[in-house]
What we know:
Blueprint: H1 19-29, H2 32-45, E1 49-51, H3 79-89, H4 92-96, H5 104-112, H6 130-140, H7 145-155, H8 168-174, H9 180-191, H10 203-213, H11 219-227, H12 229-233, H13 237-244, H14 248-258, E2 281-286, E3 289-294, E4 302-304, H15 306-310, H16 318-354, H17 356-361, H18 371-378, H19 382-388, E5 393-396, E6 399-402, E7 410-412, E8 418-420, H20 421-433, H21 443-453, H22 460-469, H23 475-478
Parallel strand pairs: 2-5
Antiparallel strand pairs: 1-4, 2-3, 5-6, 7-8
Amino acid sequence: xxxxxxxxxxxxxxxxxxxxxxxxxxxxxxSRLELVETVQQELLENPFLEEAETERSxxxxxxxxxxxxxxxxxxxxxxxxxxxxxxxxxDWENYLGEFSSISKxxxxxxxxxxxxxxxxxxxxxxKPSLDGHLSWQMRLSHFTERELDIGxxxxxxxxxxxxxxxxxxxxxxxxxxxADTEIESVIQRIQRLDPVGVAxxxxxxxxxxxxxxxxxxxxILLSLVDEHLEDxxxxxxxxxxxxxxxxxxxxxxxxxxxQKPDPMPGANFSSTEPHYVSPDVFVYKYGDDFVIVLNEDGxxxxxxxxxxxxxxxxxxxxxKDYVQEKMRSAAWLMKSLYQRQRTLYKVxxxxxxxxxxxxxxxxxxxxxxxxxxxxxxIGMHESTVSxxxxxxxxxxxxxxxxxxxxxxxxxDLEDGSQVGSESVKALIKKLIGDEDPRRPLSDERIGxxxxxxxxxxxxxxxxxxxxxxxxxxxxxxxxxxx
Length: 482
């Protein structure tokens, strides 16, 4: 069979992801904070972009209109101005005399400090860390140099809760030739530092150390912590009362003492900070309708830099190619931002139409909804709706929710209609919140109540799944002591 070269025409379709299209898709799925950071980075890198100023006066300060004073008399001072003038002119040092809280030398030193030259970081006090707090106490205590080395190795293996996750071999890898008794002695001394119970290996050891420092010597109390923590966690109270030959009131007293120690002594020194959500959209009720307002607070308003744009005709060669590329990039970014905000508005508007009962009455009226329904309503692809609802939040009359919250599965009712799974979760949470703590509702009983009131046929395992998703314990663990 011979080989030959041949020309052939072939017609095919393919999707080409241009850099501009990739940028537009990326902007869709960015959260609000990430979007602000991306725009700020583009402002730094692209000279053709600049932030538009609003409510700005174009007149210089010296050309600002000023009312002429027709009289030569001094203007009358207002009451706040008189007070400030009196404070500045009063000789407070002579007035206070020896009752002044600071001495003259301290006042002189205070005025000599060049406050303007101090960096901003130097004026802030950093939050103490658990490692630094323990190391500081060790150096104030009677620790030898070798014990300090062992203690640093122990402190370096503590987790965020203050527990020690290292065995003797791990510590010996840092401090060679350290005996087990020597390491254990240092660990016990660290456990008595502040916070008490830190460097414990187990919750049992942590609670026992804190009870020892509190001076608790009751054998029943120590036995409950040492041997029956699992029974207490699962609320097996009656067998414990029979074993120790005590009534439920005495057992309740012991439980109150056990709850005083902190099972996570190092949590107060954790560096984790709370994350605050800034809504991307606000939905307000105005009369019988709902108004959608996009949150553009903090988002720079972009415009083209006219100075660089006017110099476009004066460039040539590679400089012109660079200028044209940056100009196209700036224009495309502004267009992509506009498309992102427009898409977000259309998606929220569609969600409000589908979930109007939720915006009127709350979570219990949330209907089943899928991405396809919103995509068909606004004439977009499902992937676009999925991207624009990722990490976006909306402030409603009933609280702040993620946009993904409004898309939930359906459960069939006896009359043939459907109810959203989030509505069922809200009802389960309400039933558990209103239950008798001494007789908590079981998953099976919750399913029966939902069938009676909501007419929804839901299995016990489905109730357990929804309850676990909301981080609610089982009925045995929710039960209070009698």
